[in-house]
Design goal:
Order of helices and strands: EHHEEHEHHEHHEHEHEHHEH
Oligomer: single chain
Distance between the termini: 11 Å
Number of helices: 12
Strand order of the largest sheet: 1-9-8-7-6-5-4
CATH class: Alpha Beta
Shape: globular
Number of strands: 9
Structural class: alpha/beta
CATH topology: TIM Barrel
Number of domains: 1
Strand content: 15-25%
CATH architecture: Alpha-Beta Barrel
Largest sheet: 7 strands, parallel
Length: about 325
């Protein structure tokens, strides 16, 4: 059975108080994606709710604070870091309340070690990415925090029989290609070589797997090395179908053949002039499977369909419609 899921982020679906806004997002995800719902992210609520701040709320043993240039590591958690932790706890309370009696798989998301290193500053400025020891410490703190996060979700969601933790790495390709700008904006951080990139990812992905959850990695950036992700321990790859290279197609085929999951992003994140219907979207997926030499029944629930990337920048109407179309596409693939 092909399942449908979301990448993670969504726009605010109502404009009232924050608790009601988040509650509506949870209801929408549970209603539109019943086969693989996820913890919604609403970055429009502020710095503590966007991907970096939300994951710093998970990281263990490191403090952070919000500066004009963005998040910076500190000796102790600042007020914004404490707010991010409080907001995450409130959101998970809402997820726990609305999933009472739910049985089945569930997904959550965290920002990966390399995207964190490219967006968070060291205590004295410049990105964590600029210092080998700092990026190692951040990756290990993230791995430890993810263990606690998985344990918390297990406690809150006792009916979940398959917990997926999606590690978001939109900046990984830029890190490996030395395209991340320095603080001055006039230079670029030096390249991180694949062995180091793989090791940091492996710490985080192993922590997920050792905690009894299923590690996926998502990136909708072109040039993300899918083979490196699989080698580091990813058992699911979430990608944008429109961004794939010939090498990517081969790697995804190998992943399916090995029994791993592929979450194929088939819908754009903002409303296109002609989004198509579920039949056209299903046909697009079938052509992709045929190119790789797979039958839909052969891949079964190893194939997941989703939007291409997060929906935070879309309209509320398109976000709902995109999830509806995603679910309908999965049903069309399941029932032929």
């Amino acid at each position: 059975m092909t399942r449908a899921t979301g990448v993670g982020s969504m726009p605010a679906l109502v404009s009232a108080d924050p608790a009601r806004t988040y509650a509506e997002a949870v209801r929408t995800v549970l209603g539109e994606l019943p086969e693989l719902p996820h913890v919604p992210e609403l970055p429009g609520r502020g710095a503590g709710a966007e991907m970096t701040g939300r994951t710093l709320a998970v990281v263990a043993g490191l403090g952070a604070d919000l500066q004009p240039a963005g998040w910076r590591l500190t000796d102790a958690a600042g007020v914004d870091h404490r707010r991010a932790r409080s907001l995450l706890a409130q959101d998970l309370d809402q997820v726990e309340e609305q999933t009472q009696g739910y049985v089945g798989p569930f997904k959550t998301q965290v920002t990966g070690p390399w995207t964190l290193a490219a967006t968070v500053e060291k205590p004295r400025g410049d990105k964590v990415l600029s210092d080998h020891g700092a990026r190692r410490d951040l990756a290990q703190a993230l791995a430890e925090g993810v263990r606690d996060h998985v344990a918390d979700l297990r406690r809150r969601l006792p009916g979940v029989d398959r917990l997926v933790v999606q590690v978001d790495e939109p900046a990984l390709a830029a890190v490996l290609a030395a395209r991340v700008p320095t603080a001055s904006g006039f230079g670029r951080h030096r390249v991180v070589h694949p062995p180091e990139a793989s090791a940091a990812l492996e710490w985080v992905l192993s922590a997920i797997a050792d905690s009894g959850a299923e590690p996926w990695v998502h990136s909708c950036a072109a040039g993300t090395p899918l083979g490196l992700l699989r080698g580091a321990g990813a058992r699911g790859l979430a990608v944008d179908l429109a961004q794939l290279s010939a090498e990517d197609h081969d790697e995804l085929g190998q992943a399916l053949e090995a029994g791993e999951t592929v979450a194929l992003g088939v819908l754009p994140t903002t409303e296109p002039a002609d989004p198509g219907d579920d039949a056209r979207l299903a046909e697009r997926v079938l052509r992709w499977l045929d190119m790789l030499g797979f039958d839909p029944e052969e891949v079964g629930d190893r194939l997941v369909v989703s939007p291409a990337c997060g929906l935070a920048g879309s309209s509320a109407d398109w976000a709902r419609r995109a999830l509806t179309l995603t679910r309908a596409t999965a049903q069309a693939l399941t029932h032929g």
